[in-house]
Design a protein that fits this description.
five-stranded parallel β-sheet, two-stranded antiparallel sheet, 9 helices, 7 strands
């Protein structure tokens, strides 16, 4: 049983969904420290043919606050800020109807919890892309201890993983912590690169945007095929 472990981020890029597509169990690492200025509460889209940030404002907390304890400032921030910007950015795209579905979903979210918002969005988009085989798990529900690699291994043991699929960003600390000496669970790394797709109004392709940009340009069905492509 292949497993991936990732922190829940806001409207992730396509590589995030590619990783989900590669595993049977996907663990949201929600009980780790929140990182200011990270992808936890923001991502990028194209607005007026330029890169623009979608940012969820959050309530001020200490630097040691766990990710699953972070709250947005207002439960209507998705309606009054994020959704308006998404509408403006993609209202003239041929697959705008797909974006409207996402907007409607966002507007019906009532929670203030940042992780609940992020996880809900990721699950919704995954389902729309036809991925019904993956089982999503929150690490906070597993009640495992440890830091860095120790926590990863404890999670893998808890869910009876037979293989760990990770991203290159984790390779350095896993090596430093001697992952391969501490567990027999094999690991492989997926180095995903964004393939070019047609972006309305753009001559020079802009990579690594939120998956919203992909969906707006090529629709649900083609995005489902797109996330499965490997370089």
């Amino acid at each position: 049983m292949k497993c991936a472990i990732m922190q829940p981020t806001f409207l992730p890029w396509v590589g995030y969904f590619h990783l989900i597509n590669e595993v049977e169990k996907f663990v949201f690492l929600d009980d780790v420290q929140f990182s200011k200025g990270s992808w936890h509460n923001r991502n990028k889209i194209l607005l007026a043919n330029k890169v623009s940030w979608l940012t969820l404002p959050i309530k001020k907390r200490s630097l040691l606050t766990l990710l699953n304890q972070i709250e947005v400032t207002d439960k209507d921030v998705l309606k009054n800020n994020i959704n308006l910007k998404i509408k403006e950015a993609y209202k003239n795209h041929k697959n705008y109807s797909c974006i409207v579905e996402i907007i409607d979903f966002l507007e019906n979210l009532e929670t203030l919890s940042l992780t609940e918002i992020n996880i809900s969005i990721i699950k919704y988009i995954s389902a729309k892309l036809g991925n019904n085989k993956v089982k999503f798990i929150n690490s906070s529900d597993l009640k495992v201890k440890g830091k860095r690699t120790e926590k990863v291994i404890n999670i893998l043991d808890k869910i009876s993983a037979s293989k760990y699929i990770s991203t290159p960003g984790a390779q350095e600390y896993l090596s430093e912590d001697n992952y391969s000496l501490k567990t027999k669970i094999p690991i492989s790394f997926i180095n995903y690169f964004t393939k070019e797709y047609s972006q309305k109004g753009i001559t020079n392709f802009v990579s690594n945007l939120s998956i919203i940009d992909v969906i707006a340009n090529i629709g649900w069905s083609k995005t489902s095929d797109y996330i499965k492509l490997k370089v």
